Amino acid sequence: MKMKRAVLFGGAAVLGWILARHRRGAGHDTTSGAPVHQTGRAARNARMAGMGAKVGTSYAVHRARRAFAPEPRRAELDLEHQMHTAEQVAQTLGNMKGAMMKVGQMLSYLDEGLPEPLRDALAQLQQDAPPMSGELAAGVVERELGSPPQRLFAEWDPVPIAAASIGQVHRAITREGQAVAVKIQYPGVDEAITSDLNSAGMLFAGMRTMFPGLETGPVLDEIRSRLTEELDYRKEAESQRFFADAYDGHPFIHIPAVVDEYCTGRVFTSELADGVRFDEAEQWSQEERDLAAETIYRFAIGSMWRLHVFNGDPHPGNYLFRPGGRVTFLDFGLVKFLTPEEVYPLQRLIETIVIDPDPAAFRQTLEDVGFLHHDSALTDDEVVGYFRHFYQFALDEESGVLDEKYASLIARKLFQLDGAGSPGIQRSGNVPPAYVILQRINLGLYAVLGQLRAKAPWRAISEELWPWVDAPPATELGKQHAAWLAGRRAPAAD
Known about the structure:
Helix content is 56%, strand content 9%. The chain is built from 22 helices and 12 strands. Strands 1, 2, 3, 4 and 6 form a 5-stranded antiparallel beta sheet that branches. A 3-stranded mixed beta sheet has the order 5-9-8, covered by helices on one side.
């Protein structure tokens, strides 16, 4: 029970901070057809403050009821309270859209210790957030493309197939007979996110208290730049075309093709892909889950090392699965392109903690790149002791298991929760701006793999993907990838 409470604190602390400090609310309910950003920042403040007040009042009533209840009844009251609070939080964050909904999405799969009712309620935000009305969506299409969707397309489904933090997706068939997915940005969500980002100084002030070594200004600038790019669907189209070209014809990695003539800054159209959603894939056999997880890992980590680009939004709603490890990757709004100078320090860290352990050199690299301040009083062994867990998937060559406990411990180490971190790291640790989005590997990718309860020879797969090692294929998927790559490199026949 003690361990469960400790793990629970990881997710609950983040959510509690949101309710207590990040008091911004929405000004609408998208199901009614009103825009996301109805009365600006004040309305978002009021909505979040209202949620905090409701949850706080509910908790006070629950405490009173619990105090006078017999012991057997207390567990029932606790569960009822968790379920009621979960519904309140999920409904508010789902209707708010924008940055706050992203927080809810992340919490739903980030920490296994989150109360189960809250986790289940927030999980709806991964792919089933409350949509905007069909009329409002059609209005956006008409403003952006010049005609209502019923005239632009041979067929148009007014009921969305997915609704997320920034936009929702509709099925359509073009006049040429191609089935497409049309993503439409919520009206006003750009203003809502701008409002959230303008108020983010409060969040980072709190983080600076927890992490005195964190240089918050550059981090906030990087987050602002990436989220601003995500609002521009033309930028997303450019990124998706890059990935689609890089993986053209791949045997198990699929990127939907962009349909340019139906793309603008607020409307994005691509080929309609098929496959099952994450919750169904979770019920597949262990073998199929392992293959799916390996594909996700190869795509995320392989793209970073081989292409120097990272798709920064790994979460369960962004995949479609088919048997045999075939995965379609969706949503390329949050993409980070890295320079060789930014990638090389990451290589040095792996070399000095995994391949040829050298605590002093590992620590020196952390300091040189800005993950650790030079004036840190930590010993080399203390530094390695803290960071070693983030490389455990490659250091452990025996079990090959990436489960929810591993992912949860990573999150708790990052946020210095329930004794998982180090006071010295808290004072001296930092996140250089170039690597802010890469933290989604720790906070997103491993959480996804953990939910799949994935098992694979991660060290051997990693050595395939690390260009300076370039090991031969270690799995059947690796052999398929190598054959595809050899075909792309082969000279064209006369």
